[in-house]
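Give me the 3D structure for Cysteine-rich DPF motif domain-containing protein 1.
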Amino acid sequence: MEQSTSEPPQKTFNCQLCGLSSPFTYYGQKPPNTRAIVLLEECYVTKDPFSPDREKFLVLGSNCSLCGMCVCVASECSLFYTKRFCMQCVNKHLDQFPHQIQAELAKKKPGSRAAVS
Ligand SMILES: [Zn+2]
Ligand SMILES: [Zn+2]
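Predicted structure for Cysteine-rich DPF motif domain-containing protein 1 (117 residues):
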């Protein structure tokens, strides 16, 4: 189906770690049609397809503050600690994160300990 150029091409968010792909409607810190929401970071946002409420939206992901890689908000892909970090950068700089974060990450990866030693 050929569409006229009046409709802008749909922008797609792609997580570079898990491959999640989803169209997004907005990138930034203050999604449109929301009254007083300011996000902690610039991120990819889409309208919640399951909610009739215009103010409902979903945060799909963001760019890693270190390497700029596009990652989704899943705990396997990124971590938000004052800024967004992709898991590759988190693992690279793990010693610079507080012990609390390190402990949380260790909990999430039950098999990782066996690989060390
Ligand atoms: Zn992902
Ligand atoms: Zn990164």
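Residues 12-115 form one domain. Let me know if you want a second pass.
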